[in-house]
Design a protein that fits this description.
The chain has five helices and two strands, in the order ααβαβαα. With 139 residues, it is an all-alpha fold. It has one domain: Non-ribosomal Peptide Synthetase Peptidyl Carrier Protein, Chain A, CATH 1.10.1200.120. α2 crosses α4.
């Protein structure tokens, strides 16, 4: 079983997946900071100095100074600001993944085109005497 596990881990797919997870975790921190520290403050300023992190509605009808105070009082709250931040983060990550996949697809298409050109060039380089030795396709 240990040998089987070692073989699994040594495969490229498992290692690549692990690297992807680590890079994804680091990327998530960058996107969180981008949204919370760079994007949302100017949007909050434009919308009337709203701090999205503390934008909430207490469902019990009482007023609380902060979201933390409402949660400390065990009040049911809709954390609207957290939801808005998470939505913006999702779209940023989704867009970045889209751009990476788009770039990968473009590179894969270029590689396929180059490979087919290389195959066509090899066929064109076949000397006539060698081409005569090849059986012709039936009509």
């Amino acid at each position: 079983m240990l040998k089987e596990f070692r073989t699994f881990i040594a495969r490229g797919n498992a290692v690549e997946m692990a690297v992807g997870i680590v890079v994804g975790a680091a990327f998530t921190k960058i996107v969180n900071s981008l949204v919370n520290d760079i994007i949302m403050p100017p949007i909050g300023l434009l919308l009337g100095e709203i701090d999205f992190k503390s934008w909430f509605v207490a469902l019990n009808g009482q007023n609380y100074a902060t979201l933390e105070a409402a949660k400390a009082a065990n009040a049911p709250v809709l954390s609207i600001g957290n939801f808005v931040n998470a939505t913006v983060e999702f779209f940023l990550v989704a867009f970045c993944i889209f751009m990476v996949v788009k770039g990968f697809n473009k590179l894969a298409a270029e590689a396929k085109t180059a490979t087919s050109r290389l195959g066509a060039a090899k066929t064109a380089d076949t000397p006539p005497e060698k081409a005569a030795d090849k059986p012709k396709a039936a009509p």
